[in-house]
């Protein structure tokens, strides 16, 4: 994707400065486009924990490079296993993180220590390339759904899509999941408009999705999280499309907190609710998302304080709750499969059921 006409991926390597890893600091967007240089596994772990880098597919890709950075310092079996455990523990809900670390270890364990660094960088690079290709394919399959909606409306009329959190290219290596079909529809000339949930408490929709869509020229409107149901009641949403951090083999979907409520509103108003994901986000070991998927509990300060830019252009953080009020901050919720119209993967679209998923992934 492009920023001001310059193509970027969300993570890249610079061989000239010691094979360091470069990412955008997502905590500074949309007001400042800062590039971070990560030179150690500890740097990577910090970036993941603090959400300088976020988005399930991107976390996995950056963690893979984090293991490569760790091996530059010490490539023994013991050190590799210890650093892998440290990286995998940074965030619990997104399955891509664990998947990427497991894939790296499976590739590296059989190799002698002196061959591991080069092999780690190569394997992390393959993970990135595969993610970009998968997301482009998701975009093509999701585009067909938007085309189908366009056929039901008067020629040239607006197609209203609603998304929650950020599932764009800044959350993946490239293209994004839920936003990939939207970019392709816009580029094809379809009259798409996106309702962007602000996505409290970290405002990934207002800050990141709106920034992405604006940079690409896609018409959009930021709304309060609680406005989606109202819009659906009044026929102003043609389809909801979101990403996900983990999908069970039965089709339950873990995504940013508030997704479940959008799915309930969509069902009540007969609005299609689609979830876009690469197959690396499917957890084939889990059947019941509500009881089995661990939900990350983040700091209450994300609820009690909010960051923004004041009238002088200064970035600042302000408190919005009374002193002494406690805050609970579950970062994700689980949408049961019965509320999901279907899943969009790199292999096509399917029902949010075990049979539906196995029809696309029979090897599982």
Outline of this structure?
This protein is an alpha/beta fold and 364 residues long.
Topology:
Blueprint: E1 2-3, E2 6-7, E3 11-14, E4 20-24, E5 35-38, H1 41-49, H2 56-73, H3 77-88, H4 95-108, H5 116-151, E6 159-163, H6 179-188, E7 192-197, H7 204-216, E8 220-223, H8 228-233, E9 239-242, E10 246-248, E11 253-256, H9 259-268, E12 273-276, E13 282-283, H10 289-292, H11 301-304, E14 305-309, E15 315-319, E16 332-335, E17 342-345, E18 348-350, H12 354-360
Parallel strand pairs: 6-7, 6-9, 7-8, 9-12, 10-13, 12-17
Antiparallel strand pairs: 1-2, 3-4, 4-5, 10-11, 11-16, 14-15, 17-18
List keywords for this structure.
Rossmann fold, alpha/beta, four-stranded mixed beta sheet, 364 residues, 19% strand
Count of folded domains: 2
Query: What's the gyration radius in Å?
Result: 20 Å
CATH architecture of the largest domain, please? 3-Layer(aba) Sandwich
Order of helices and strands: EEEEEHHHHHEHEHEHEEEHEEHHEEEEEH
**Poorly predicted parts:** none
Broad structural category: alpha/beta
Corresponding CATH superfamily of the largest domain: Translation initiation factor eif-2b, domain 2
Q: How many strand elements?
A: 18
Q: How many individual helices?
A: 12
Look at the structure and give the mean pLDDT. 96
Per DSSP, what share of the residues sits in E-state strands of 2 or more residues? 15-25%
Q: Could you give a short account of the major beta sheet? A: 7 strands, mixed
What is the straight-line distance between the termini?
A: 32 Å
Keywords: Amino-acid biosynthesis, Isomerase, Methionine biosynthesis
Pfam families: IF-2B
Family: Belongs to the EIF-2B alpha/beta/delta subunits family. MtnA subfamily.
Pathway: Amino-acid biosynthesis; L-methionine biosynthesis via salvage pathway; L-methionine from S-methyl-5-thio-alpha-D-ribose 1-phosphate: step 1/6
